Amino acid sequence: MNVWILRHGQAAPQARTDAERELTAKGREEVLRSAAHLMGQPLQRIIASPYVRAQQTAELVRQALGFTGSILTVPWLTPDSNPRRVLDELEAYNAEDVLLVSHQPLVGALIGLAVHGSVQQAQSMHTASLAHLEADLPLAGGMELVDVRHAE
Q1: CA-CA distance, 88 to 107, in Å (whole number)?
Q2: How confident is the model at residue 151 (pLDDT cuts 50, 70, 90)?
Q3: Residue 122 has what DSSP assignment?
Q4: Cα separations in angstroms, 146 against 30, 69, 115, 123, 132
Q5: Using CB atoms within 10 A as the burial measure, which of 15, 67, 107, 116 is most buried?
Q6: Element (H or E) spanning 39, and its range?
Q7: What integer is the mean pLDDT of 54-79?
Q8: Quick check: 20 and 152 in contact, CB under 8 A?
Q9: How distant is the alpha carbon of residue 129 from its chain centre?
Q10: Can you tell me the distance from the alpha carbon of 138 to that of 151, in angstroms, rounded to the nearest whole number?
């Protein structure tokens, strides 16, 4: 199983609610640079947070890759979601190569939990940073961090 974890691109600092913050022009550019690293990867599913900036990020990636599937929107990829729950949810996709589009602090904590078995060893993830993890199963401490690319 390959899991790519993409933090959304730069978002407007304010909106009516945090969930409604939209990508900035810079954020869109960042996402497209990160999407280029996914070209040729065997993605089978794009799973995204319901927050606007994550949905916009996922859609930009979908278009850039020519991905024909729809984006699966789930409530367990929001900024304050539990990384253990994300690993549990990923078990349903363990035969697939998936892209998760989400937020800090979740993405950093999720990578720390997946690779080191601890959310205390969170991975630094800037806007539009892309991490690639590999494993047979999505288990705490049982995944390998293949690489992390920061959009700059």
Answers
A1: 15
A2: confident
A3: P
A4: 21, 25, 10, 13, 5
A5: 107
A6: none
A7: 97
A8: no
A9: 9
A10: 25
Task: Give the integer Cα–Cα distance in Å for 40 and 22.
Answer: 28
Domains of the chain: 2-149 (3.40.50.1240)
Is pLDDT at 152 greater than 80 in this prediction?
no
Q: Residue 55 — left, alpha, or beta (φ > 0 → left; ψ -120 to 50 → alpha)? A: alpha
Cβ atoms of 130 and 5 closer than 8 Å? yes
The answer to whether the beta carbons of residues 102 and 7 sit under 8 Å apart is: yes
Q: Is the pLDDT of residue 77 over 90?
A: yes
**Which pLDDT score is estimated for 61?**
98
What's this model's pTM, rounded to 2 decimal places? 0.97
Alpha helical stretches, state H, the chain: 25-36, 52-65, 83-90, 106-116
First to last CA, the chain: 28
Q: Is the pLDDT of residue 94 over 90?
A: no
